[in-house]
Amino acid sequence: MPENSFKNALPWTEAHEAYCYQHHIPPAAKSLWQWLMRHGQIASEIEPDLSEFNAWVAKNRGKPYAHNYLKKNI
Predict the structure, then answer these.
(1) pTM of the full structure
(2) Which residue of 1, 46, 60, 63 sits 20 to 30 Å from the alpha carbon of 29, by its own alpha carbon?
């Protein structure tokens, strides 16, 4: 159950979702945005490690995104 409560704490709102649809944000970019929100801190600058993101994607999606796809769409 800790995963479910963690997902509920995600500050992802309907406004974020609407923005993604209005601006045709690709699913990979949306996933990265959500992942960054979970790993970052408000008002702090971070340098994400895309290999960590892709490992998380592979675990949850079943396969990672291709490196070129990430570079093109994010």
Answers:
(1) 0.72
(2) 1
